[in-house]
Write a structure and sequence with these properties.
The chain is an alpha+beta fold and 160 residues long. It is built from three helices and ten strands, in the order ββββββααβαβββ. It folds into two domains: 41 residues, no CATH class; 109 residues, no CATH class.
């Protein structure tokens, strides 16, 4: 597991001050951060529901992610950071089955923020590398509406 800045195990989280411009000050070290990063391992194997999603050629993943993440509601800065992180992982696969997990993800990774944000957008991509094209029902994506104090989280995992 990795985190940045350091996760405060006494708090079981981070204590930060978030500003309207997106700046975050971590109280533990009094340093400024653009975002909080965490990486975790599930306690048990997750059987992701991949019955709906998108089949994307590895080489087309960059354009696909830009379009879909924008449609979901990420800003260019946010979807660019997502793509920079995930494109190197996905580009060399012949195809990728990509599914954006909603409730299944939020149920296994609860998030508590105080004070409560006006809006929370959690984008979690589950992908499965494929050698060949398959047919799958296309996933319908909801468009997120930002309101005042908005928290955005994005991440992903490979389906095992």
């Amino acid at each position: 597991m990795a985190d940045y800045p350091d996760y405060d195990s006494k708090l079981n989280g981070w204590e930060v001050t978030a500003y309207p411009d997106g700046k975050i000050i971590n109280h533990l070290d009094n340093q400024e951060y653009n975002y909080l990063f965490w990486e975790g391992e599930p306690k048990q194997k997750i059987d992701w529901d991949l019955s709906k999603g998108f089949i994307v050629k590895g080489e087309d993943t960059k354009q696909f992610l830009q379009q879909k993440l924008s449609q979901i509601g990420l800003t260019p800065k946010e979807y660019n950071e997502f793509i920079v992180y995930w494109y190197p992982v996905l580009q060399h696969n012949a195809y990728n089955l990509i599914h954006f997990a909603d409730k299944q993800y939020t149920d296994i990774a609860p998030l508590t923020i105080s004070p409560q944000p006006d809006a929370i957008l959690r984008v979690f991509m589950v992908y499965k590398p494929l050698e060949d094209m398959i047919n799958i029902e296309e996933q319908k994506l909801k468009t997120f509406e930002r309101k005042s104090f908005t928290v955005v989280e994005w991440g992903g995992t490979k389906a095992e």
